[in-house]
Amino acid sequence: MKYDLIEALKQIERERGISLENLLETLENALISAYKKKYGPNKNIKIEVDKITGNLRMFKLIEGEDIESSKKEIVSTPSDFGRIAAQTVKQILQQKIREASREIMYKEFKDMIGEVMTGIIRQTDQRFTLVDLGKVEALLPQGEQIPREHYRLSDRIKCYIVNVKKTSRGPQVIVSRTHPGLIKRLFELEVPEISDGIVEINRVAREPGHRSKIAVSSNNKSIDPVGACVGQRGSRVKMVVGELSGERVDIVKYSDDMAEYVRNALSPSKVSDVFINEEEKEAYVIVPDDQVSLAIGKDGHNARLAAKLTNWKIDIKSESMWAEEKLKELEEKKGKKEKIKEKKAKRCKAILANGTRCTYKAKTGSDYCGLPAHKKLETKKEN
Fold first, then answer.
1. Is 363 exposed, middle or buried (0-12, 13-18, 19+ CB in 10 A)?
2. Per DSSP, what are the bridge partners of residue 141?
3. N or C, which terminus of the chain has less Cβ within 10 Å?
4. Which of 77 and 351 is assigned the larger pLDDT?
5. Three-class secondary structure of residue 287 per DSSP
6. What CATH number matches the domain at 116-176, 2.40.50.140, 3.30.70.270, 3.30.70.330, 3.40.50.2300?
7. Is the pTM of this model over 0.90?
8. Quick one: which of 249, 108, 266 has its CA closest to 190?
């Protein structure tokens, strides 16, 4: 063991990020293991490598004493141990470097969960697609792919990192093209006001491959958050739509007033009125008759996305349907009042001694019940 060993270990420390102490400890344990394998497991020895000179020292441990007094230097090292040590150093260091590289790469990508990276398609089939992210090949599962989106070899795509797993072959990075976070990150890349903290993306709702909605707000009253995200002549939103293979993106203004927020979420349809039920988290939305199909959207996309964006249940009705229901309610209330009046009219009209009206039902064809005293009142009335 010479000085060039220490230089080599220091170079590994600089390039791979593995500390010199860690490398020396690994090397010493490997040499002990190699010695016992060659000369027997009952050899109670300790090997130390000087971290300055690289010299190797071997000690025999004496049982029953403390660690410092149990060291006894072996003057003569086996003649063929140098060759064994060289082979062991090579193997162990290679293994340590591989393990350390995997650990460093795992930590690096673990911290990147929730970020967007640009990758190159290297392999694609019905099960999954492999995306080259530079240091590692990421897995794009079938369930994380945009429906009807086709990938060709060497295509460049942007992916959202959703998970990183430890494996014996290194970190396995899972990426997505359907995650709502992808849209948020893409707008952060395209809109400087978002990265500067002036405009904020409050909510994202997405149905991958079809349509998405984002709710935005501004921390500066002089800046329109919707306009900032759309860009001049739609330049910014077009970049995001192009990256998502033509998926439509609606940008609406966020509001703490739930009625206004629901109204905005149903854009581009016009809304006549919104009734809020705070306890049930339900919103009843009235739209003009010619706006119903637009409010619901193709296959219900607009209504579903608005519900996801607000996290409320939204019930959409046309003005004519709402008017019919209200008219029906009024008629029902009127009918109930008439029944009450009719019921009261059929009661006996006799007044009791305490000044209240008799609670018994009047006989058919009479204004009084069957009590003798009340029948007499009917007789007096006829006379």
1. middle
2. 128
3. C
4. 351
5. strand
6. 2.40.50.140
7. no
8. 249
